[in-house]
């Protein structure tokens, strides 16, 4: 069995703390600073804003624990792509990789480039008309940096990881103890002036999910852990609890420092809070730290995204496979895949806002996430003897809660943003005829050569 062979080849060297830091490093990104504007816009109150972060963290933990069982049982290179392929077959797995290539990674690059440009304009008082040119410039520049090789891209990630922790620690550490005239109470939980509490709760919950993006990869280290049966669940629970606590605290600081009415729809809320806490000069330094963090997030999506398209080309699973599967001679980087990804991201810069693009990628990826959650039930029945170094505690409660939480995101988006949902689904399904045509041509060529 291929999965078994790969499992034996992986070196089990990771202990609990490296796994914990991996979980937190994968998830914490630019969303922690910029989703506060859309969350507050949806909730209408400080109390509900804080509690939707708690709810989102809980659902993410349930999802992470569910995927961890798959990761421990199928610790193969390719992560969620391979889980979907093992459970459902090649076509759904291809559609996942296709969706990642044309929606997920380009939308993330585009959304973060837009918010990067917004912060640059705010920081240096530039004209708002420069938003699109700056967003395009940063996306292209980061792609160009990655052409120099994985070492350069990895170096940017290392610097950005430290950079994103500095403003988070400073804002929380100082902001919690800074006097404020804004009275923030967790109870009673209200929806402010919004007409429907449940609509406000749902909108806020969906808005938080981009900040938790990356949770799907938390199980990928399962095959390299010394004791996955003991440490995997612990690292996921503690890591995601820690992330949820960070998000709750930083959101609390934002609503504590700024008048609530000034936050909804304000992409500069993080920098304005930093200036209020640290003064003009100190606030600008913290904002620069936030910019470096966002720069690193864009780099992470750019670096990993182009390798998904490259893998499709290398495995001859896509039209123009040779084009996508080509590497540069010296740096061994999938340049063609990166060019296509960057071009799609640039198109998206013109098409959507930060929130629109992040909502689209969250919607599309949660469809496949739900397929993974359901897959745990399928594998338990279809392959009861499959070796599972980690099995979900309190089964089947966590996967059921993850399915409910993910299903809510999908249904809510379809109801409230039907155009966005339709566009995400269509972009994903475009891959189906491309796959079938290419597969037909491969079979035809094979027959001709026999």
List the defining traits of the structure above.
disordered N terminus; globular; Amino acid/polyamine transporter I; 18 helices
Descriptive report:
The chain has 450 residues and is mainly α. The chain has a single domain (2-441), classed as Amino acid/polyamine transporter I (Up-down Bundle). 74% of the residues lie in helices and 0% in strands. It has helices spanning 2-9, 16-27, 31-34, 36-43, 46-73, 80-88, 90-124, 131-146, 150-175, 197-208, 228-257, 269-314, 321-324, 335-351, 354-382, 397-416, 418-429, 431-449. The longest helix is centred in the middle third of the chain and has 46 residues, at 269-314. Residues 1-10 have low confidence and may be disordered. The chain crosses the membrane at residues 14-36, 48-81, 102-124, 130-149, 161-177, 197-215, 236-255, 275-298, 333-354, 360-380, 392-414, 420-437.
Named at the architecture level, the CATH assignment is: Up-down Bundle
For the biggest sheet, the summary is:
none
Name of the CATH superfamily: Amino acid/polyamine transporter I
**What share of residues are in beta strands?**
under 5%
Instruction: Give me the strand/helix succession.
Output: HHHHHHHHHHHHHHHHHH
Rounded average pLDDT: 85
General form: globular
Structural class: mainly alpha
The radius of gyration computed from the alpha-carbon positions, rounded to a whole number of angstroms, is 22 Å
Keywords: Membrane, Transmembrane, Transmembrane helix
Protein name: APC family permease
Subcellular location: Membrane
InterPro entries: AA/rel_permease1, AminoAcid_Transporter
């Amino acid at each position: 069995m291929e999965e078994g062979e790969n499992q034996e080849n992986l070196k089990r060297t990771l202990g609990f703390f490296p796994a914990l830091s991996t979980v937190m490093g994968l998830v914490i990104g630019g969303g922690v600073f910029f989703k506060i504007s859309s969350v507050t816009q949806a909730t209408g109150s400080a109390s509900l804003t804080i509690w939707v972060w708690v709810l989102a963290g809980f659902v993410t933990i349930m999802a992470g624990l569910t995927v961890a069982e798959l990761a421990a049982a199928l610790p193969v290179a390719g992560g969620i792509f391979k889980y979907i392929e093992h459970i459902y077959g090649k076509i759904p797995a291809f559609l996942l990789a296709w969706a990642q290539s044309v929606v997920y990674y380009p939308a993330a690059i585009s959304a973060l480039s837009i918010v990067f440009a917004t912060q640059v304009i705010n920081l240096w008082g530039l004209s708002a008309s420069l938003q699109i040119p700056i967003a395009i410039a940063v996306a292209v520049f980061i792609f160009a940096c990655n052409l120099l090789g994985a070492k350069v891209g990895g170096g940017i990630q290392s610097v950005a990881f430290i950079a994103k922790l500095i403003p988070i620690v400073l804002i929380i550490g100082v902001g919690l103890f800074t006097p404020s005239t804004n009275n923030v109470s967790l109870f009673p939980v209200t929806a402010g002036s919004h007409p429907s509490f449940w609509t406000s709760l749902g909108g806020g919950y969906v808005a938080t999910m981009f900040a938790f993006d990356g949770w799907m990869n938390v199980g990928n280290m399962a095959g390299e852990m010394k004791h996955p049966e003991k440490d995997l669940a612990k690292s996921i629970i503690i890591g995601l609890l820690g992330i949820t606590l960070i998000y709750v605290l930083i959101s609390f600081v934002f609503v504590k420092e700024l008048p609530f009415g000034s936050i909804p729809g304000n992409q500069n809320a993080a920098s304005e809070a930093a200036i209020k806490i640290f003064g003009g000069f100190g606030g600008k330094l913290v904002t620069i730290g936030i910019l470096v963090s966002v720069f690193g997030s864009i780099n992470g999506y750019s670096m990993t995204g182009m390798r998904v398209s490259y893998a499709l080309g290398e495995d001859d699973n896509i039209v123009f496979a040779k084009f996508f599967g080509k590497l540069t001679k010296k740096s061994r980087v999938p340049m063609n895949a990166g060019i296509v990804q960057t071009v799609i991201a640039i198109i998206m810069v013109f098409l959507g806002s930060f929130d629109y693009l992040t909502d689209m990628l969250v919607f599309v990826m949660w469809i496949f996430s739900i397929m993974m959650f359901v897959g745990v039930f399928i594998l338990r029945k279809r392959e009861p003897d499959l070796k599972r170094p980690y099995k979900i505690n309190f089964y089947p409660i966590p996967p059921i809660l993850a399915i409910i939480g993910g299903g809510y995101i999908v249904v809510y988006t379809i109801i409230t943003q039907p155009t966005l949902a339709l566009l995400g689904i269509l972009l994903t399904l475009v891959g189906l005829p491309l796959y079938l045509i290419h597969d037909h041509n491969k079979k035809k060529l094979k027959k001709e050569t026999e």
